[in-house]
Structure formats: C-alpha cells, structure tokens
Amino acid sequence: MKTIYDVQQLLKKFGTIIYIGDRVSDLELMEEEMKQLYQSNLVEPKDYQMAILLLRQEMQKLKKQG
User: Fold this and answer.
1) What is the pLDDT of residues 13-46, one digit of tens each?
2) Concatenated DSSP letters for the chain?
3) Helix 45-65 and helix 23-39: axis angle, to 10°?
C-alpha cells in the first residue's frame, strides 16, 4: 500500500466507498473506517498502520496548503 488510492481500494473490498466532496473530510472518514475494520480484525496490522500513515500524511499536506 503506497497511495491513498490503495487505501480506497482496500475499503472498496469491504463495500465502503467514501466521497463527501471535501478531501480532508473524506480522509478523516477513511481513517475512521480503517479503525473499525482493524478493531473487527478484518485487516492486517501492517495494512492498518500503513493506511493510517498515508491518510494522516495527506491530511497534513492539505492542511498546510490552506
């Protein structure tokens, strides 16, 4: 898993498609979904950790931009 797109594809495997229209809100919701999948033992710890890292990095980048 290397990109936000990869995170979206992982979520899609579980029937979750997230699009609100606000990129930061989308990322926050994806993070929450990943937490729930992890707590339900549906995703591997390494996939969870990488997804959270990617989502948080992208949020930081967007918040710095404006």
Assistant:
1) 999 999 999 999 999 999 999 999 999 999 999 9
2) --SHHHHHHHHHHTT-----S-HHHHHHHHHHHHHHHHHTT-S-HHHHHHHHHHHHHHHHHHHHH-
3) 160
